[in-house]
Amino acid sequence: MDATDPAYGCRRCGQRLSRRGGELSCPDCGETIPIADGIPRFPVPDGVGESSHETFFDRLAPIYETPIWFRPLYRFLGGAAAPRDDRSMIASMLDLETGAETTITDDPDAPTVLDVACGTGRVARHVAADAGFVLGVDISAGMLERARRYAARDGSSNIAFARMSADRLWLEADAFDRVACCWALHVLPDVAAALAEAHRVLRPGGRFVGTTIVAEYVLDAAPVRAVARRAVGAEPFDVDDLRNHLRKAGFSSLEFDRRGAALFFRARAE
């Protein structure tokens, strides 16, 4: 697999989609997916594409990686115990240790990575140097446009992006060695479906790594949780509930590392 041929699969008949000009098409049932500005635009579940949730993240995209959004919010949630750079810890949990952002590995056995709800691609870009290929998916067109632009700026040629819903991935089963879902589970409308999809596209024994928020530390206070819910629709997890969700989706070897209200987790696909 490379950046020009991700393992896109038709959700209607299961066949691999092929690129033809400005679209992807299914050789079996004729399903076509438009490609705009290099980003395939897969259909998302009814109501998601026009939701205020998506519009909010489109507006957030220009400032997401600036000093006025992610970093101060991360420090507020994680507190003093949180790693200075969450991406380094995520890379380590993915067994992509260096997270260097300069050269791309030439190892033919380097793992393939799917970044679900990738946002502006900050994690995808960080792990790309140690991965064979990275695909980032998100429903927000604004986030994906920034992700594509930033990857081109950084010279990350082994990354592709697609508009796709976390709970309905247009990808073949067993397509990736690693799946990441960072800072997103708490805003997804169907967590169980998203985890089931992450498990489906992982090869047996593959690692699933992510970060989310839990009702601890600053989020132990009901007023703070209420603000998070109103602002971005965030629903903090109880760790036991997340553990149960992961097990029901088919994951094992669960590991959790809580830093303040920030929870890092890792699991293995059975």
Walk me through the structure.
- The protein is of the alpha/beta class.
- The strands form two sheets. The chain has a seven-stranded mixed sheet with strand order 7-6-5-8-9-11-10, sandwiched between helices. The chain has a four-stranded antiparallel sheet with strand order 1-2-3-4.
- It has a single domain, classed as Vaccinia Virus protein VP39 (Rossmann fold).
- It is built from eight helices and eleven strands.
* CATH architecture name: 3-Layer(aba) Sandwich
- Which CATH top level class fits? Alpha Beta
According to CATH, the fold-level topology is Rossmann fold
Q: Please tell me what the overall shape is.
A: globular
User: How many helices?
Assistant: 8
N- to C-terminal separation? 23 Å
Please, what is the CATH homologous superfamily?
A: Vaccinia Virus protein VP39
Radius of gyration: 18 Å
Pfam family, one: Methyltransf_25
InterPro entries: Methyltransf_25 (IPR041698), SAM-dependent_MTases_sf (IPR029063)
Domain Methyltransferase: 113-206
Keywords: Methyltransferase, Transferase
Can you tag this structure with a few keywords?
alpha/beta, 7-stranded mixed beta sheet, single chain, globular, 4-stranded antiparallel beta sheet, 270 residues
